[in-house]
Write a structure and sequence with these properties.
Radius of gyration: 15 Å
Oligomer: single chain
Shape: globular
Distance between the termini: 28 Å
Largest sheet: 3 strands, antiparallel
């Protein structure tokens, strides 16, 4: 697995020696984060692809529906073997969702933190 590294601003790195993540937990983590940041309907080539934040995460009435959507997006990511731990919280007043997920990848373990 080889993916172009993104910097702290989320921009792809070009022209540097460390511009790729190759066969590493960080590569899988970056792909997970990209998948979670893609909102359903955003990608013009496939309007059905993405995380359903407005329907299943921020618009859901139960924690189970929210967690199932996030877990599904993570488990469907190339290189993910399993979710080892998962914790999430949702503030109905501010509609803020956050999750911390420990994932085993084909290359080792990593942690994904999500806040929306």
């Amino acid at each position: 697995m080889r993916v172009r590294r993104v910097d702290a601003n989320g921009d792809h790195e070009f022209g540097r020696s460390g511009e790729f993540l190759i066969d590493s937990p960080e590569a899988v983590r970056q792909i997970i984060e990209s998948r979670l940041n893609l909102v359903t309907g955003e990608w013009f080539l496939d309007k059905t692809s993405g995380t359903d934040y407005y329907g299943k995460v921020l618009g859901a009435h139960t924690q189970g529906i929210r967690d199932a959507e996030i877990r599904s997006r993570i488990l469907d990511t190339v290189g993910v073997v399993s979710i080892d731990s998962y914790s999430s919280s949702y503030d109905a007043d501010t509609r803020e969702f956050s999750a911390v997920v420990r994932v085993t990848t084909a290359y080792g373990a990593t942690t994904v933190e999500l806040t929306t």
